[in-house]
Amino acid sequence: MTPAGSLLIATSLHKTYGHTPALDSADFSIHPGEVVAVMGPSGSGKSTLLHCLAGIVKPDSGSVHYNGRELTAMSDAERSGLRRGEFGFVFQFGQLVPELSCVENVALPLRLNGTKRKEAETRASAWMERLEVADVAHKRPGEVSGGQGQRVAVARSLVTGPRVLFADEPTGALDSLNGERVMELLTEAARESRTAVVLVTHEARVAAYSDREVVVRDGKARDMAGVR
Amino acid sequence: MSGQDAPAKESRSRVSIARWAADLAMGGRFAVTGGRESWARTIMTAVGVGLGVALLLLASAVPTMYQQRNERGDARSALSFGNAKVKPGPDTLQLANAGTDYRDQDITGMVMAPDGKGTPPVPPGIDRIPAAGEMWVSPALKKLLDSDEGKLLRDRFPYRTIGVIGDSGLTGPTEFTYYAGISQKAFDNVRSQYHIDHWGSEKKGEDKPLDPALLLLIIVGCVVLLLPVLIFIATAARFGGERRDRRLAALRLVGADIHMTRRIAAGESLFGSLLGLAVGTGLFLLGRELASGVDIWGISFFASDIVPSAPLALVIAAAVPASAVMVTLIALRGIAIEPLGVVRNAKPKRRRLWWRLLLPLLGMALLLPLAGGFGAGGGSGSNTKAYQAAAGAVLLLIGITALLPWVVEAVVERFGGRGSVPWQLATRRLQLSSGTASRAVSGITVAVAGALALQMLFASVEAQDREDTGQDPHRAQLIANVPVSNGAQAHDAFARYRATKGVKDLLGVTEDYISDVRHSKDDPTSVPEEAITVADCPTLRELVRITSCKNGEVFLVDSPSYYGEGEGFAKPGAKVNLAYRDDGTPDLRKKKLWTIPDSATKVKPRKDPVGSERTGIFATPGAFDIADLPDPGASAMIRLDPKVPDGVEYVRNTSVALSPAMDVMRLSSTAQSDEFTVIRKALFIGATATLLLIGASMIVTTLEQLRERKRLLSVLVAFGTRRTTLSWSVLWQTAVPVVLGLALSIAGGLALGVMLLKMVGQPLAVDWTGLATMTGIGGGVILLVTLVSLPPLWRMMRPGGLRTE
């Protein structure tokens, strides 16, 4: 798969934490609507790659182009704005605000973008229905199961209609049945809305939902398109 | 069988004691062995508890401080109540109070001379009676006299310093006092002199009961200052609670049962509070040394005076660790520590209103019967009333703090999900757990409610106290009553004042009494008298309403209080008796007659700069020779030149040169009690300090909450949440409970204030300035907590929190 027509392209990313290199000349690209699994063992640099691609962390060197714009040259406010409007995120755990109800959690990104509460919650409810968690809309995260909570998180990541969804071990804390259901719903919804998904996982079962796999090892990313 | 049971029971109890001890010790170890964070938490608790303990120890030392101070004051008192007047003898001492003021400083002192050649009593703190021209000074006065600041004061003490008064002769280390020796002859120029044959007051056991308003102030003041401290200690004992709970969960995983985890938590808390006890004792000892140099409202204490009462200190030593453990155990009740983590009760039990309302209502019920009757009666009845008032105030104030969590819960529950994202985040957080915030704010509530109530009491008492003196400081700023024995001395005194630096003008009045010559055969004590005032025309214009005045003229003002209009004996052409006996009664045998000139004009009186209306005969020097007055008094009403700094000090120096025990009085249109100003300031400072203390505990609590939510904060940042959004949510999260707490404390404070005013029978008055100030400080605390929380909040919003490896 070539970078031509790619929505997000990373070239020669280097990132070091203290004396530990996390990324060492890593390259990556993704097309609109594509689901790419980033795989690799623990500590290989998968999450760091995701954080650099999403503009959460600035790489020490290298570039990240999103839709023709250089992410690394953007200010913190610009990157935050991009994350609010064009990107969505799902993490393994600890991502829902415990005080807010599930529907308020899903509506939160919209509200941060200035959408009125009623409208935000209406759109949030629609996504929750789609992800089969409408019944827990008014419960707090502490009152729902892990699988339900993760589906609420997926709904939250998609509610703004992002062009790229970053999912870091989205099923890591779930049993296999719940994990598979979450992945089905996530990839279905993403493909329908032509949202690109960067899926960080170490589970082949989860990676199977992707169109393409990239393996990160010792900070280097290797596209497995040809290998598969 | 029973024989076998007994050792088993004993061994079980031994095991359980050993188990208890081991668990408590393990908790203690956790308090220090958990690395930097663990130490930080323990230190925070220790400092928090320590501050509280230091304040409690200081409060417990107050009775001893005053007792020691009063004992020294009584021991050096020269006044013997109830004793017959001491007649001069070989072993007696002649004395006169010779206190003065220097700038804003009160200086007490005495001039003295032995009456005979025996052994007159020596006051405590000095070795011998100073001879004429010698003086003993307190260390503070010596320092002042030796400094550049005291240069001007040195002229007022024409004595050689022979030593420094020892601690036993001083009430406090910063007291300005002296004992000066003067000659017997110099006492001729001293007005109020007396003789003593011993030092020390004999009024022990005859203390008059305290003014009810003052007693109330003290009672409520103690409650107001100590309750927030207790609340602060309780808050400090919870510092680091969430992290501790997680550690306890880890212990459950390796086999600790619920009881063990509780004992371990108690041990950890016990260690922190015991360390706090040590820190508090250290702070108290340090504060004691520092406090010995502090002068508040002219009162200071020696470090050796500041000794906590032993029973109270024991109670503090036992109660503080016990209450810290109790607070921890109570806090653990609301959570379930399971091996896989800590489960907080998702829906905490709804707070009950009835018992929270019961407390303030009980308080009111205790206070209401005292309305109008506090301080009435005496003996054991007034003691009961004092306890009743204290119990009422405590219940009312505690009731307000007990109501706060309910009010916060009830109010935030109604917020719904409306409003901006920060508002929603804050209110939802409060809805989930408002207890922590309410607990921290409850200290503010007590401090503000109590301070408001006291401010109301002060404002009302002060307003009554601050009455118009009638003095007119625009016409004269100082008044000096000079002891003179004849008119020439009065002339001389006025001339010396006129020549004093800083004196712009002077109204000099020489005055005495004359008696009615027609009652010459009557009892001398019932002979009608009138005042005669001799002064020049410009001065007379300040005393009576006259349009024209020439030297040689005489004016008459009838005294309506004694005689009807025109019925006085001092009439034009009337003869009056100038002669007086040594005992101050008219001399009816050796009369000295003077005839009031026929030209004397009747005029109306005018208030003099001191505010009094003089009556009688007003003569110019050309009409009356002041040398004819047997025992004249001379008053100098002095106008100061505002351009000359320290004019009043120059006048005081001149006064002392005229008479060693003389001081001058400043004129002021209103007499504002310094005491109330100082108490109000102290109250303001105390309340501010309490609010800051509570603010500090709120900062710790907020930071802890933020640290617990580090990962969540990073996730929020990941999907683009602005810093301002989270900053505002912290502000709202602090502001909502504080604002509710302030509202409640204003309501409670006003209620308590009204009750206190009713109890001492004062008119109702709200101190709006005090109310606004306290509210302002409360607002300041909100801002401070938010501002201090922002840098760590922003640090925690860094994406590093997302890293799990």
Notes on the structure:
Chain B: It is found in: Cell membrane. Chain B: It comes from Streptomyces endocoffeicus. The complex is a heterodimer of chains A (228) and B (805). Chain A has seven helices and ten strands. Chain A is of the alpha/beta class. Chain A has a single domain (8-223), classed as Rossmann fold. Chain A has a six-stranded mixed β-sheet with strand order 6-7-8-3-9-10, with helices on both faces. Chain A has a four-stranded antiparallel β-sheet with strand order 2-1-4-5, covered by helices on one side. Chain A starts with 7 loop residues before the first strand and ends in a 5-residue tail after the last strand. Chain B has 805 residues and is α+β, with helices and mostly antiparallel strands. Chain B has four domains: 23-76 and 211-346, no CATH class; 93-196, no CATH class; 415-466 and 672-805, no CATH class; 478-666, no CATH class. Helices cover 51% and strands 12% of the residues of chain B. Chain B contains 19 helices and 21 strands. Chain B has helices at residues 2-33, 35-75, 139-146, 151-154, 212-236, 241-253, 258-291, 310-333, 354-367, 379-413, 421-432, 435-465, 487-498, 537-543, 647-658, 674-708, 710-718, 723-759, 768-796; strands at residues 93-97, 100-102, 105-114, 134-137, 160-164, 177-181, 193-196, 335-338, 341-344, 478-483, 503-516, 529-534, 544-545, 554-557, 575-577, 593-595, 601-602, 604-605, 616-619, 633-640, 665-666. In chain B, strands 10, 11, 12, 14, 15, 16, 17, 19, 20 and 21 form a ten-stranded mixed β-sheet that branches. In chain B, helix 2 runs antiparallel to helix 5 (212-236) and helix 10 crosses helix 12 (435-465). The longest helix of chain B has 41 residues, at 35-75. The radius of gyration of chain B is 36 Å and the shape is elongated. Classes of the chains: A alpha/beta (228), B alpha+beta (805). The interface between A and B is medium-sized, with 41 and 26 residues.
